[in-house]
Amino acid sequence: MNRYCFCLQVKPDRLDEYVERHRDVWPDMQAALRDSGWHNYSLFLRDDGLLIGYVEADDLEAAQKAMAATEVNTRWQAEMTEFFTGREEGAEGRPPDESFVLLPEIFHLTPNTED
């Protein structure tokens, strides 16, 4: 399983509403993520709007394509677009799930196999 980390920028004046929307992510959206190959998916939000996402997937590009093909993702992305600044490189006119910037992994603590 591959690990991926990404970032986006949430509009600072929309942080509370963005957090509230993620307290109750639609069950069909959660099911679509799982069915599309997204695993161990987390979002972290700094108070200036920096959003960091972490996800594990066999193939992130394939998982993204599978999600893009779902009706629930189309609805979710349409609602989430208004929360983002669009300052990410190449983000103009693209939904958030196609605009995030992947961060390279530079360290990973592996489990101790001697235990």
Q: Characteristics of this structure?
A:
single chain, 115 residues, four-stranded antiparallel sheet, 4 helices, 23% strand, Rham/fucose_mutarotase, L-rhamnose mutarotase
Radius of gyration: 15 Å
Poorly predicted ranges: none
Q: Order of strands across the biggest sheet?
A: 2-3-1-4
Strand fraction equals: 15-25%
| Class of secondary structure makeup | alpha+beta
Number of helices: 4
Mean pLDDT over the residues: 89
State the distance separating the first and last CA atoms.
22 Å
Q: How many β strands by DSSP?
A: 4
Shape: globular
Q: Main beta sheet: strand number and arrangement? A: 4 strands, antiparallel
- Tell me roughly what share of residues is in helical segments: 25-40%
> What's the helix-strand series?
EHHEEHHE
Provide a brief overview of the structure.
With 115 residues, the protein is of the alpha+beta class.
Care to describe what's here?
It is globular, with a radius of gyration of 15 Å. The mean pLDDT is 89. It is built from 4 helices and 4 strands; from the N terminus they run βααββααβ. It has a 4-stranded antiparallel sheet with strand order 2-3-1-4, with no helix packed on it. It is α+β, with helices and mostly antiparallel strands and 115 residues long. 32% of the residues lie in helices and 23% in strands.
